[in-house]
Amino acid sequence: MTSSIRIALVYPELLGTYGDGGNALVLARRAAWRGLHAEVVEVTAGQPVPSGFDLYLYGGGEDDPQSLAAAGTRDSPGLRRAVEQGATVLAVCAGLQVLGSHFPGTDGRRVEGSGLVDLETVPGAPRAVGDLVVEPDATLGLPLLYGYENHTGRTLLGPGVRPLGRVRSGLGNGHEAQPDVDGAIAEVGAGRVIATYLHGPVLAQNPALADLLLASVVGTLPPLDPDPAAEAARALRAARARQTGVR
Ligand code: GLN
User: How confident is the model at residue 228 (pLDDT cuts 50, 70, 90)?
Assistant: First the structure.
């Protein structure tokens, strides 16, 4: 069991619009509560994404900054190397799109992603804005995932990629060829990419997912008492989902 967890928060100035940088804080805090040290390093725009980290975090962003994040990621062989050697990536919304093959840029341009994950995002309408509830893939052993979405892109997963879960409320990936699914789980070498349209930040509202990421680095974790702030946020989203209708 390693005692220090190295977390890269990738391009927070470009992919920070929706507060997804909070995912790094949640990981560091939940590690600290267990006496584990987690080091969070911000990979700033213009830098290549280095290898050498255990966890990589990509957040959501607007179309132009997202295109810059894609360019930086395309030019970063270190990311693929790290994942192939066992690192885990959490990618949210624009982050998910950036790791795929292509996504829509401004003015209808088709922008090239990093190609780390076999998925493609195409333009869609209307914009998906609102609560998103996802029943995660059963193999993950996680409870329902809560958060919100705000995107126009519609994502199609390639044959080797499975969804993070089934959408119970909201849109998620939203591609007509693969209805009612959200996100992606892609095995890449010894590592893994977990991607989702859930903002929140997703790890603040879904601590079990945060622990899954930490456990991918350090192995089995001692359990923690429920976090009252996370439980309150989950209860609020669950109540709202019941009002709008859970599938
Ligand atoms: N710009 C992308 C879209 O609208 C991603 C938005 C986001 O990250 N929330 O699809």
Answer: very high
Nearest to 152 by CA among 184, 174, 183, 182: 174
> For residue 15, which atom of ligand 1 is closest to its CA?
8
Question: Which tokens hold the place of 176?
Answer: 């007509």
Q: How confident is the model at residue 3 (pLDDT cuts 50, 70, 90)?
A: low
Burial-class residue 192 by CB neighbours within 10 Å (0-12, 13-18, 19+).
Answer: middle
- The pLDDT of residue 1 is above 80: no
CB contact at 8 A, 119 and 100: yes
- The residue nearest atom 3 of ligand 1, judged by CA position, is 151
Q: What pLDDT shows up at residue 138?
A: 98
Q: Are 164 and 183 in contact (CB under 8 A)?
A: yes
**Buried b or exposed e, range 68-86, using 16+ CB within 10 angstroms:** bbbbbbbebebbbebbeee
Name the DSSP letter for residue 98.
H
Pocket test for ligand 1, best of 109, 150, 173, 202 (most atoms within 8 A of CB): 150
Mutate to test the pocket of ligand 1, among 66, 68, 99, 198 (most ligand atoms within 8 A of CB): 66
Residue 194 pLDDT exceeds 80: yes
Pair of tokens at residue 239 = 């109540």
CB distance 59 to ligand 1 below 6 Å: no
Q: How far is the CA of 132 from the centre of ligand 1 (A)?
A: 14
> Within 10 A of 146 (CB to CB), how many other CB atoms are there?
26
Residue 108 has pLDDT above 90, yes or no: no
